[in-house]
């Protein structure tokens, strides 16, 4: 698409700019605007998240000391360490405690797709609004747009479900279930209690926007398909004796 677009931009036909915002009221343009907006919410709600999980630790000379582990996108939790309860590290019984899991691949896949979709939607809207005549006259544009729409709908499906699974694991890895796996909390005279974890409501919202993007792109397949010569070919075949 980008190669075809750049080739067309330098052609004499593309110099004939014909701005028509009326296309935004048609399904092809209106859905593209929604896809653009929803992609922003998808990468903003996931990529901008910052949180922390907190424990209350009691050990030698320390009573209910708050220790925290701050985590954020891209959720490489295995690099996040809890702060020591005190300078003496509980009389030497406290060792560095890391969270478990690396969920960066799913998170980055989801955010990267959202960013690429954001950029693609801007490019598509420029073509739809300013160069619709070229889009309609050159059959390669609708075909490329159709192929990208199908692929993007599939990628939203894969990335959203992968991210939803990763989010469920992140909640487990930062919740109360982490305490039994902390060896330092098993030392004689040391007790650990789970205190809190940052609400992940925005991450839940990111999954919702992933699903909405998947539905939008899946539904948009039909509207893009109508502009391709594939539909005309199928009509000719069905009408032939």
Automatic annotation (TrEMBL):
Residue stretches spanning the membrane: 109-131, 143-164, 203-225
Domain MARVEL: 23-229
Coiled-coil zones: none
Pfam name, any one: MARVEL
PROSITE patterns reported in the protein's UniProt record: MARVEL
Protein's UniProt keywords contain Transmembrane: yes
Glycoprotein in keyword set: yes
Membrane topology listed for this record: Multi-pass membrane protein
Chief site of localization: membrane
Name of this chain's protein: SYPL1 protein
Organism: Ciconia maguari
